[in-house]
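Practice problem: predict the structure.
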Amino acid sequence: MLRINLLQLDSVPVVIRTQYMPPFSRLGPYRPELLDQVAYRDDEWFEAWSHEASLLPVADEPLLRWQKERARRGETWGQLAALAREDPGYVQEVLEQVRESPLAPKELRDPRRRSGEWWGDRSDGSIALDWLFRIGEVGIRRRAGFVKEFDLMDRIVPAEILAQPTPSEHEAHRELLMRAASSFGVGTASDLIDYYRLPKVPAKARVAELLEDQRLLEADVEGWDRPALLHPDAVTPRSIDACTLLSPFDPVVWCRERAVRLFDFEYKIEIYTPAAKRIYGYYVLPFLLGDQIVARVDLKTDRSCGVLLVKGAFAEPGHDRDKVVEGLRRALDDLTILVGCDSWRVVGTAGDLAGSI
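Answer:
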């Protein structure tokens, strides 16, 4: 999908769930249910833990098997593994129920609810399903409301892909780094490693190998204080005509250090910041115009009224204000279509653009 290679998932629907935004930011308004169709009914993409929880093409499943092996060996997800060690019979029973029919955790015959603040509303059944997901026995589809439905992996990923040889961890890391480089075009070693959240020490060694093999090339980027790596097929575009709002979890900005290097754009999502200490707002989207991030906008979708609410709008310094305002209006028009609203409306006074758009 336009070399994105993965879509990060997030359950917060303040504007729209984040996985729907990157295709929109590149293609314009579309029907979000088309992504659900591709991912959760046609099974062309599948959920995996990659750059956090993510959607990836099913063809990439062999490249992530090393994660499952690490989990099976007890090197990761220790709390989940503990239940598998202490009560393997129960975990097997949960797997057999999934084998009978796909289910949500609450539909288990004996979910074994836990008590105590540490676990929240998690049950042993939920933990067992999560463990089975981490080791590749089950996969995840989504029901209405973003509810997880667990099914056997071999009912999600096609048999011909599951039958493919398993790459070594070494080989998988090299290929994933090349895919990250293809997505970014140019980036630092840490950018490429972060794309699939590879373990840093072995991944750095793989980067060095790819440079030695000339699968990655060294490059100079003005203003960068770190060595840059270039994909051999990367092409410098003649112009970039972007005019779009970005998800906080879009690859363009998900690595905050990279956003500073590329755009001189300091960015922090403030959902978990106390309201009194927020600088820009609860759910703020960067605005990309041309090849620069020129503003940020605090937004909320009011689905009951069918209105996209603009709670604040802030210009970045050094850009033509009239062009920013004109572009932002177009971007809000497009986003209004994506989220299924009839209009957008400025309802707040925060920021120097709020009174102009």
